[in-house]
């Protein structure tokens, strides 16, 4: 890949947003849990009209923060 393509892909990645329901399915938790995580500041949410979306990078950051030293996710 060319440098410009990588930079464009990185910028696009930063701008991707997911529905709370999508994240709930990915994490095997309820939508209410995802919304609570967002309201506690654990996930970065943005409101578009009446709908909430969560930045994909925010989810990745959350998962990285909660990895144990063995590479497994820590239980809350």
What would a concise description of this structure say?
By secondary structure, the protein is α+β, with helices and mostly antiparallel strands. It has helices at 3-14, 20-27, 31-39, 56-65; strands spanning 17-18, 45-48, 51-55.
Key features of this structure:
3 strands
Helix and strand arrangement:
Layout: H1 3-14, E1 17-18, H2 20-27, H3 31-39, E2 45-48, E3 51-55, H4 56-65
Antiparallel strand pairs: 1-3, 2-3
What would your notes on this structure say?
- It is built from 4 helices and 3 strands, in the order αβααββα.
- By secondary structure, it is α+β, with helices and mostly antiparallel strands.
- The chain has one domain (3-63).
- It is globular and about 40 Å long.
- The N and C termini lie far apart (39 Å).
- 11% of the residues are buried.
- The model has no long low-confidence stretch (mean pLDDT 81).
Task: Tell me the number of helical segments per DSSP (H or I, 4 or more residues long).
Answer: 4
The share of residues in helices is: 40-55%
- Low-pLDDT runs of 5+ residues are none
Q: State the major sheet.
A: 3 strands, antiparallel
**Arithmetic mean pLDDT:** 81
* Quaternary organisation of the protein chains: single chain
From the N-terminal CA to the C-terminal CA, the straight-line distance is 39 Å
Strand arrangement within the widest β-sheet reads 1-3-2
The chain-level structural class is alpha+beta
Shape: globular
**Rg value:** 14 Å
Count of extended strands: 3
Instruction: Please provide the ordered H/E string of secondary-structure elements.
Output: HEHHEEH
Strand residues, percent:
5-15%
In total, the number of domains comes to 1
């Amino acid at each position: 890949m060319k440098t410009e393509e990588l930079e464009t892909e990185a910028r696009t990645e930063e701008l991707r947003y997911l529905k709370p329901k999508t994240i709930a399915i990915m994490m095997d938790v309820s939508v209410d849990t995802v919304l609570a995580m967002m309201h506690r500041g654990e996930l970065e949410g943005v409101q578009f009209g009446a709908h909430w979306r969560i930045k994909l990078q925010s989810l990745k950051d959350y998962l990285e923060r909660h990895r144990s030293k063995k590479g497994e996710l820590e239980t809350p």
